[in-house]
Protein backbone atom coordinates (compact mmCIF):
# COMPACT_ATOMS: atom_id res chain seq x y z
CA UNK A 1 0.00 0.00 0.00
CA UNK A 2 2.75 2.43 0.98
CA UNK A 3 4.76 1.74 -2.17
CA UNK A 4 1.77 2.40 -4.42
CA UNK A 5 1.07 5.72 -2.69
CA UNK A 6 4.75 6.65 -3.00
CA UNK A 7 4.78 5.68 -6.69
CA UNK A 8 1.70 7.81 -7.38
CA UNK A 9 3.25 10.74 -5.50
CA UNK A 10 6.50 10.50 -7.46
CA UNK A 11 4.78 10.14 -10.83
CA UNK A 12 2.36 12.98 -10.13
CA UNK A 13 5.02 15.40 -8.83
CA UNK A 14 5.34 17.36 -12.11
CA UNK A 15 1.62 18.11 -11.88
CA UNK A 16 2.24 19.90 -8.58
CA UNK A 17 4.58 22.43 -10.26
CA UNK A 18 1.66 24.61 -11.37
CA UNK A 19 0.33 26.29 -8.25
CA UNK A 20 -3.43 26.68 -7.76
CA UNK A 21 -3.16 30.47 -7.82
CA UNK A 22 -1.63 30.26 -11.33
CA UNK A 23 -4.50 28.29 -12.88
CA UNK A 24 -6.75 30.31 -15.16
CA UNK A 25 -10.55 30.28 -14.75
CA UNK A 26 -11.10 29.60 -18.46
CA UNK A 27 -10.31 25.88 -19.04
CA UNK A 28 -9.55 26.45 -22.74
CA UNK A 29 -7.00 29.18 -21.95
CA UNK A 30 -5.56 27.05 -19.15
CA UNK A 31 -5.10 24.10 -21.52
CA UNK A 32 -3.38 26.38 -24.06
CA UNK A 33 -1.11 27.69 -21.29
CA UNK A 34 -0.24 24.14 -20.19
CA UNK A 35 0.47 23.05 -23.76
CA UNK A 36 2.70 26.07 -24.40
CA UNK A 37 4.50 25.82 -21.08
CA UNK A 38 5.56 22.27 -21.97
CA UNK A 39 7.48 23.73 -24.93
CA UNK A 40 9.40 26.27 -22.83
CA UNK A 41 12.61 25.41 -20.96
CA UNK A 42 13.13 26.28 -17.33
CA UNK A 43 16.26 28.42 -17.33
CA UNK A 44 17.20 27.10 -13.87
CA UNK A 45 16.53 23.38 -14.39
CA UNK A 46 17.84 23.32 -17.98
CA UNK A 47 16.17 20.25 -19.52
CA UNK A 48 12.85 20.55 -17.76
CA UNK A 49 9.86 22.45 -19.04
CA UNK A 50 8.43 25.32 -17.04
CA UNK A 51 5.28 23.23 -16.67
CA UNK A 52 7.22 20.61 -14.67
CA UNK A 53 9.64 22.85 -12.80
CA UNK A 54 9.19 24.12 -9.26
CA UNK A 55 11.80 26.87 -9.66
CA UNK A 56 10.75 30.45 -8.96
CA UNK A 57 11.80 31.57 -12.44
CA UNK A 58 9.65 28.83 -14.00
CA UNK A 59 6.71 30.08 -11.95
CA UNK A 60 7.36 33.63 -13.19
CA UNK A 61 7.46 32.37 -16.78
CA UNK A 62 4.22 30.42 -16.33
CA UNK A 63 2.52 33.54 -14.94
CA UNK A 64 3.93 35.70 -17.75
CA UNK A 65 2.70 33.21 -20.35
CA UNK A 66 -0.78 33.16 -18.82
CA UNK A 67 -0.85 36.97 -18.72
CA UNK A 68 -0.01 37.11 -22.43
CA UNK A 69 -2.77 34.59 -23.25
CA UNK A 70 -5.33 36.49 -21.15
CA UNK A 71 -4.28 39.69 -22.96
CA UNK A 72 -5.35 38.01 -26.21
CA UNK A 73 -2.02 36.95 -27.70
CA UNK A 74 -1.99 33.99 -30.04
CA UNK A 75 0.15 31.00 -29.13
CA UNK A 76 2.88 32.15 -31.52
CA UNK A 77 2.79 35.73 -30.22
CA UNK A 78 3.04 34.60 -26.59
CA UNK A 79 6.00 32.33 -27.36
CA UNK A 80 7.63 35.08 -29.44
CA UNK A 81 7.26 37.53 -26.55
CA UNK A 82 9.03 35.15 -24.17
CA UNK A 83 11.73 34.30 -26.73
CA UNK A 84 12.36 38.01 -27.36
CA UNK A 85 12.75 38.57 -23.64
CA UNK A 86 14.79 35.48 -22.66
CA UNK A 87 16.40 34.35 -25.91
CA UNK A 88 15.92 31.30 -28.06
CA UNK A 89 17.47 29.07 -25.41
CA UNK A 90 14.12 29.12 -23.61
CA UNK A 91 12.65 26.88 -26.34
CA UNK A 92 12.92 23.14 -25.66
CA UNK A 93 12.82 22.56 -29.43
CA UNK A 94 14.88 25.33 -31.08
CA UNK A 95 13.94 26.56 -34.53
CA UNK A 96 15.84 25.41 -37.60
CA UNK A 97 16.02 28.90 -39.12
CA UNK A 98 18.79 31.46 -39.00
CA UNK A 99 22.15 30.39 -37.61
CA UNK A 100 20.58 27.33 -35.96
CA UNK A 101 20.63 25.42 -39.25
CA UNK A 102 24.39 25.01 -38.72
CA UNK A 103 23.74 23.24 -35.42
CA UNK A 104 21.06 21.04 -36.94
CA UNK A 105 23.26 20.13 -39.91
CA UNK A 106 26.49 19.64 -37.92
CA UNK A 107 25.65 16.13 -36.69
CA UNK A 108 24.88 14.57 -40.07
CA UNK A 109 27.75 16.46 -41.74
CA UNK A 110 30.24 15.22 -39.13
CA UNK A 111 28.95 11.66 -39.59
CA UNK A 112 29.49 11.90 -43.36
CA UNK A 113 32.95 13.43 -42.85
CA UNK A 114 33.95 10.68 -40.41
CA UNK A 115 32.64 8.02 -42.80
CA UNK A 116 34.64 9.54 -45.66
CA UNK A 117 37.81 9.65 -43.60
CA UNK A 118 37.28 6.05 -42.49
CA UNK A 119 36.69 4.80 -46.04
CA UNK A 120 39.73 6.73 -47.28
CA UNK A 121 41.91 5.21 -44.55
CA UNK A 122 40.73 1.67 -45.28
CA UNK A 123 41.22 2.06 -49.05
CA UNK A 124 44.70 3.51 -48.53
CA UNK A 125 45.59 0.68 -46.21
CA UNK A 126 44.33 -1.94 -48.66
CA UNK A 127 46.25 -0.33 -51.56
CA UNK A 128 49.53 -0.11 -49.64
CA UNK A 129 52.16 -2.54 -50.86
CA UNK A 130 52.45 -5.63 -48.75
CA UNK A 131 55.89 -5.95 -47.24
CA UNK A 132 57.43 -9.37 -47.15
CA UNK A 133 59.12 -10.29 -43.96
CA UNK A 134 62.62 -11.32 -44.82
CA UNK A 135 64.11 -14.46 -43.37
CA UNK A 136 66.83 -14.19 -40.77
CA UNK A 137 70.37 -14.10 -42.00
CA UNK A 138 72.76 -16.86 -40.97
CA UNK A 139 74.36 -14.60 -38.35
CA UNK A 140 70.97 -13.68 -36.92
CA UNK A 141 69.90 -17.32 -36.74
CA UNK A 142 73.13 -18.21 -34.92
CA UNK A 143 72.61 -15.36 -32.43
CA UNK A 144 69.01 -16.53 -31.87
CA UNK A 145 70.19 -20.06 -31.13
CA UNK A 146 72.69 -18.70 -28.60
CA UNK A 147 69.98 -16.67 -26.84
CA UNK A 148 67.61 -19.62 -26.68
CA UNK A 149 70.30 -21.95 -25.37
CA UNK A 150 71.08 -19.67 -22.44
Automatic annotation (TrEMBL):
UniProt KW keywords: Heme, Iron, Membrane, Metal-binding, Signal, Transmembrane, Transmembrane helix
Transmembrane segments: 101-122
Entry protein name: Cytochrome c-type biogenesis protein
Function: Possible subunit of a heme lyase.
Keyword Iron: yes
Species the sequence originates in: Sedimentitalea xiamensis
Domain CcmH/CycL/Ccl2/NrfF N-terminal as annotated: residue spans: 6-148
Pfam families for the chain: CcmH
Family: Belongs to the CcmH/CycL/Ccl2/NrfF family.
Amino acid sequence: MRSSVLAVAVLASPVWAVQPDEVLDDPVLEQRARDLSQELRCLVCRNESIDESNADLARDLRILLRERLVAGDSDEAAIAFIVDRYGEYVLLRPTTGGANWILWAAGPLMLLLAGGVGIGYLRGRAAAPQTQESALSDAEQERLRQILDE
